[in-house]
Amino acid sequence: MNSLRDIVELSPQLRDIETQAMYGLQGQDAAQPLAPPRWDWGEVRKVLLVRLRSIGDTVLATPAAFALKRFLPKVEVDILLEDWVAPLLDPHPHIDNVLALSRGGLIAKAGAARDLRAAKYDVVYNLHGGTTATFLTRATGARHRVGFKTYQYAQLHNHLAPSPLLLWGQQKTHSVEQQLALLGWTGVPVTDRPRTHLGVSPGAAEAINQRLAAVGLTDRKIALIHPAAAFATKQWATENFARVVEYVAERGFAPVAVAATHESAVLENLIDQSSVHIETFDLSLPEVTALAARSQLFVGNDSGIAHIAAAAGTRCVVVFGSSNIAHWRPWNSAPAEVVFEQMACQPCHGYFCEKFDQPECILRVPVTRVTAAIDRVLS
Asked: Which of 103, 139, 101, 132 is nearest to 118 (CA)?
C-alpha cells in the first residue's frame, strides 16, 4: 500500500501546502488513505453519502462523514437517510444537509431520484448496497459513483472497490471500517478509524433538562437503560434488567428507561419487577441523543439506542445475543464493554433461534457478568 507521502508525490493536485495540511501530514500518526486518489479532488464541490435503513446504520455512518469533512472542509457533504431516522443527524457538525427519503413506494423513490439528480453531486458513496440505495446512487448522475464489487447491481456504479477485508488486511471488519474502506479506496484519509459522533440540538437538550427537572433529577447521575430490542434473540430478560436497575441505584444512579412507543409493555414489565423507582420517557430520536449525552452510564441490548449512547460519549455496557459482535459492537471513544455468552451458533441471522426453543445465546448471560462490566467501565 502506498504511503500518504507517496500519494502526494503521485498527485500534482495534492502538492500544495493547504491540501497537505488537510491530510494532516504534520503529525507522525496522521490518518492515511487506503489507496491513491481516483480523481482530482480539487474539482469536487458536493459529495453525497447514501445510507438507508436503521438507527444503528445511521449512527455508524458518522465516521465516514467526519473523514470526508476533515479531508475536504470546504466541500458540501450531504447524507441520504430514511425519513423516520433522518432527525437523528439534524444537526450534525460534519454534515451540511440531511436528505430524507419518504416512504411511499415507487412514487417517492422517483421523486427522490429527480431531486438528487437536480442537486448535481460530483461524488456519491453508496454505503448501503441495497437495491433502493443503488438505484438512487445511479439516479444522481454523479460523475463518480462508488460502491463495492460485491453489491447487487454493482454495474450501476462506475468505481467498484474490492472487499474491505482486503483493503484493511483483516479477517473481520466492523461496519464503520467497511464504510471507511469505501472512502479510503478513493484517497480519503481513514486509517485512524474515527469514532461515531452525534450532535445535540439545543431544542432537544432543553427538552431533556425540563423533563429531568420535572422529576427532580437535575443534579443526579443518570443511568440510561434500554431493555427492548428488535428481535427476541437480542433481548435480554427483563427481570435481569430489573436487577441491573437495582444495582445502579445502589451505586447512586437514577435509572431512566427508554423504549419505542410500541415497546411500552417492556418498560411496564421492568417497572413491575424492580424494587426501585424508574423514570420512563417517550422521546424523539434527538431527545434520546440529548438524554444519552446527559447520562453517565448506558446499559442495554444491542440496538440502535446503544449506538446513540456510544456516539454521545456515554460509558456503555451492551448485552449481545445473536449479532456479529465484531461487526456491530459500539464504536465509541468512552469506556465500553460488550457482554455475551460464547456459543458455537453465535452469530446468526437473529430473526429467530434455529437451534433451541429459546434464544439461549442472550438468555444465558448472567446478571453478575453485566454488573461486573458496569464496575469496570465506571472505574
From this structure: 139
CA distance 350 to 105: 27
Q: What stretches of the chain show up as alpha helix (H) in DSSP?
A: 4-10, 17-23, 55-59, 62-71, 105-119, 131-139, 164-168, 175-184, 202-214, 238-250, 264-273, 285-294, 304-311, 325-328, 360-363, 367-378
Q: What is the pLDDT of residues 162-219, one digit of tens each?
A: 999 999 999 999 999 999 999 999 999 999 999 999 999 999 999 999 999 999 999 9
Look at residues 91, 67, 65 and name the one whose alpha carbon lies nearest to residue 79.
65
Q: What is the pTM of this model?
A: 0.90
Structure-block grid coordinates of residue 95: 454534515
Give the type of residue at 356.
Answer: F
Cis check: omega of the bond before 347, within 30 degrees of 0: yes
C-alpha cell at 379: 472505574
- Report residue 161 as a C-alpha cell: 472497490
Any bridge partners for residue 226, and if so which? 300
Domains and CATH numbers, the chain: 4-184 (3.40.50.2000), 202-378 (3.40.50.2000)
With cell 433481548, the residue in question is 235
C-alpha cell of 302? 444491542
C-beta of residue 97 within 8 angstroms of C-beta of residue 119: no
φ, ψ for residue 50, nearest 5 deg: -110, 115
Name residue 101's beta-bridge partners: 82
Backbone angles phi, psi at 101, to 5 degrees: -90, 115
pLDDT tens digits, 15-72:
332 333 333 333 335 899 999 999 999 999 999 999 998 999 999 999 999 999 999 9
SS3 of 119, please? helix
Three-state DSSP class for residue 13 = helix
Are 47 and 78 spatial neighbours (Cβ–Cβ below 8 Å)?
yes
Are the C-beta atoms of 140 and 121 separated by less than 8 Å?
yes
Residues in the chain: 379
224: helix, coil or strand? strand
Dist CA 148 CA 142 (whole Å): 17
List phi, psi (to 5°) of 157.
-100, 155
- 3-class SS of residue 269: helix
* Rounded CA separation 223/257 (Å): 8
